[in-house]
Amino acid sequence: MKSVTKMLASATALALLAPAVWAEDSTDPIMIPLHNWSSQIVMSHVVGDVFASMGNTVEYVTTDSQAVYESVRLGDVSLELEVWEGAFGASFDAAVAKGGIHAAGAHNAVTREDWWYPMWTKEACPGLPDWKALNECAALFVTPETGDKGRFLGGPVDWLKHDQEKVDALGMNFAVVNAGSAAAIWAEIGAAEKTKTPIVVFNWTPNFAEAVWPGEFVNFPEWVAGCNEDPAVGPIPDKTFDCGNPANGYLKIAAWDGMKDKWPAAYAVLAKVSLTNAQIAEMAKLVDIDGMEPEDAAKAWMDANPDVWKAWLG
Amino acid sequence: MAVKAWHVTTAKLLLALAVALMIAKVILPPELIRPPEWLVLPFADWINAAFYFLQNDLGLMSLTRAFSDVVEWLLNVTANLLYGKSRWPNIGPIPWGVIAATAFMAGYALKGWRLGVLSGGTFVWIALMGQWQWAMETLSVIVVAAPFSVSLGLTVGVLAWRSQRFERILNPILNIAQSLPHFAYMIPVVVFIGVGPKAGAIVTIIFSVPPMIHMTLLGLKKVPDEVIEAGKMCGATRWQLLTRVRIPTARAEILIGVNQVIMQCLAMVVLASFIGMPGLGQKLLQLLQSLKIGLSVEIGVTIVLLAVTLDRLSKAWALRLPAHDVPSPRWIDRNRLLVIWLALCAAAFVLAQIFPYFLEVERKQALSVAGPIDSLMDHLIRLIAPVTAWLRWFLITWVLIPMRDAYLWLPFTAVLMLLAAVGWAIGGLHSAAICVAYFGLIALSGWWDRAMITVYMVSISVFVAALIGLPLGIWAARNTARSARILLICDTAQTFPSFIYLIPVIMLFGVNDVAVVAAVVVFAAVPIVRYTIEGLRNVPPELIEAADMGGATRRQVLWHVRLPMALPTMLVGANQSVMFSLFMVIIAAFIGTQDLGQEMQRALSSTDVGKGLVLGFAVAFMGLMTDHLITRWSEDRKRALGI
């Protein structure tokens, strides 16, 4: 076993040394993580294809979207293209604090995550998107498990969204039920669509769901700094969490600290990558609505938007 | 008999105590209702500290990484051959026709036309459905993991057979390992190995090795002394005795172990993709994520077909006895199959060179049955929506919520007493102590409430599964053709990736416990049906004839002869049913539960080894306790029946 490892190690060392004379970037593959939502997969393939066109080798690996920051930190994967403030901010910050990972850039996109409903809900409850109107309509959202309260279907508990606190603070007649995965939320919306049942769920943008099911976010009292921590801030004087979520979260790009030295050219490109909400939603749509494979969707997107990605190379 | 009576009395006393604790709940001090804080031990912190020590101070990390580098190198070779990943030896990908032809010839050589068509057909299906790349990604991991697992299992099995002390240490570890939920394994693997195909391979190896060890040990123990004597008389050394005499004699058991390894590997295909195993599992999760049920079902079918093919091939290999024909003098006669295989492969190679279709079927050219499946699902959901809405309301309001509240209402001391009573009734002090120890540890872990929710979901699921499974099993056992059909359905339902069930049940019932129970029941019912059929069909015909001659009606024969005789076997089914439910309840966290599974999912995403293992052990203890009780009871029944 030992000798095999040694042999492998020396082989890798040779492979590392030989081409270093000609090219700047290492010939080791750049490891790009893939998660379980389409925009991220397509975007990863787009960036991967750009790297490949520069002569780099690229490999993709599927990982958990929270655990990935630990892997980036250790250099097991090289970068992460979608760091959502709301969903992954905490994991990212924790990894940054441990060292080994940093933000290489940011997309020109805002992320928003909050209570959301598909359009058919509005027909039953015309006062929407105001949260007070939603509260008046609570009876429309009653389910057996929530008794006489309306049901709000939240994301998995580990997304830490404080929906229950919001319900309590605003005195809403709603009960929070947590789905176990994003897929569970989509399945609920899909089922509700068949019978046009009113439904209010946790959702976010940019996301494929907005293309499949047109809908709107609920307008809660506007988020102001401190409203989740300081009871005095926000409309209800003695409550925290008496406001919506920030409507303009960041969407960053993270990279392993070692990437800059190992693949300087690729890193320079990565730092320039910046996409808008519309572009990201388009990537998701190619897969989720048009039914393309992510690899093909990436190629199609690159064919349709050459000016966008060619600008990263310059 | 006197001992039995004493057991029953003690059990009744304990039961009375448990009831008293329930009645007196209002006046009980809170320490007796829930484990007080000072009693809850920080197991998770201890485990984390131990892991930290292993990882950083002992430098185990470099060892595991070195090992995983070897695995990765092997994975790269298979990945190159099977789907053309740009790695040494850079000769792949092998055209799909060649692999299909090879599979066909393997099936034909082992058992004949039918198996050949099944195995060749599986690969043709994969290629034509445009899943080649994904399936090969999956297989590239399995062809590395399975041999690793087999050789590891064989080695450990031989060691355990050599040293009794080692076997005594190994047995409890194996038992726990087999009842630990899959997610609990994955967290340490992520810490020590990282993510990606190598992590997928290693988690698959860990998961599939216990049955191999078991079967090796079993096989070696069964080797008759006469065979060994014969070997010794021929002057064989100890090594020769082992490799030339013992292992070949234990061949049947060892090959069943190999078969088990392969099945476990396929069972891990979807789960291992949570830590980066590429291929079918990963694709399946992605498709489910965007509600593409039809396409996921296609992948599910592929996984089932692969499982069935590999199962039949390995079984055929296991059952084939070495032939001792006089070899024909002509080379071509002796190697007829080899020649045909080479010719087929060459033809497939040539075809692939001329038509790219035979090298790889692209997704655009692929056939698909997803459309009809999706519209069928759609119609079905619309059609039965009123029924499910009513069922959902009824079950939640009248069954599930009251039951859950009742489980959570119980003081933990009352539960422990109750278990002690059950244990004592079945196996006396020994069993009572085992029950209390397992659940006591769960109480000490601080996850009591969540554990009770898991227990509640498993018990309702197994109950519903028995309501469905027992009549179905009894009905199916009436004639051979019918039981064969039902058993085939059982096999399919069991190998079908569990995740696919999750989305339809949410669409039917919404995010709540009804959906969870519905998904779990599918898995819980399978072993009940299977063992009911096996049990009833294996009742000695003389007994039934005797009862018939005694003038018993069909109903009387069923109730007084067939069912009692089949009970020990049916209990094995009940035992497995509990195991499957436990595993499935944990996976059902993806629907949305508040039990141990939900916490396990969190532990996985925050790579918290300690918490994950504590939760895993809690689940394993439930399984082990049930296993102990049922096994004990079933043995008693067998003894009473004189089987």
In summary, what is this structure?
The complex is a heterodimer of chains A (314) and B (643). By secondary structure, chain A is an alpha/beta fold.
Rg calculated over all Cα atoms of chain A: 22 Å
The helix tally of chain B amounts to: 27
CATH topology of the largest domain in chain B: MetI-like fold
**In CATH terms, what is the architecture of the largest domain in chain B?**
Orthogonal Bundle
Find the CATH superfamily of the largest domain in chain A.
Periplasmic binding protein-like II
Query: In the CATH hierarchy, what is the architecture of the largest domain in chain A at level 2?
Result: 3-Layer(aba) Sandwich
Which term fits the overall shape of chain A?
A: globular
The major pleated sheet of chain B works out as: none
> Under CATH, the topology of the largest domain in chain A is which?
D-Maltodextrin-Binding Protein, domain 2
**Approximately how much beta-strand content do the residues of chain A carry?**
15-25%
Specify the structural class of chain A.
alpha/beta
- In helices, the fraction of residues of chain B equals over 70%
Main-sheet strand order of chain A equals: 7-6-8-5-9
Set out the fold topology.
The complex is a heterodimer of chains A (314) and B (643).
Chain A: H1 2-20, E1 30-34, H2 38-53, E2 58-62, H3 68-74, E3 79-84, H4 85-98, E4 101-106, E5 112-118, H5 119-124, H6 131-136, E6 150-154, H7 163-170, E7 174-178, H8 182-195, E8 200-205, H9 209-212, E9 215-217, E10 251-256, H10 259-262, H11 264-272, H12 277-288, H13 294-304, H14 306-313
Parallel strand pairs in A: 1-2, 6-7, 6-8
Antiparallel strand pairs in A: 3-10, 4-10, 5-8, 5-9
Helix pairs in contact in A: 2-12, 2-13, 12-13
Chain B: H1 2-23, H2 30-33, H3 43-57, H4 60-83, H5 96-111, H6 113-128, H7 132-162, H8 164-179, H9 182-192, H10 197-221, H11 225-233, H12 238-249, H13 251-271, H14 280-289, H15 293-319, H16 331-334, H17 336-354, H18 370-409, H19 412-445, H20 448-476, H21 480-495, H22 498-509, H23 513-537, H24 541-549, H25 554-587, H26 596-605, H27 609-641
Helix pairs in contact in B: 1-19, 3-27, 4-7, 4-10, 5-6, 5-17, 6-15, 7-8, 7-10, 7-13, 8-10, 8-27, 9-10, 9-26, 9-27, 10-13, 11-12, 13-15, 14-15, 15-18, 18-20, 18-22, 19-27, 20-23, 20-25, 21-23, 22-23, 23-25, 24-25, 25-27, 26-27
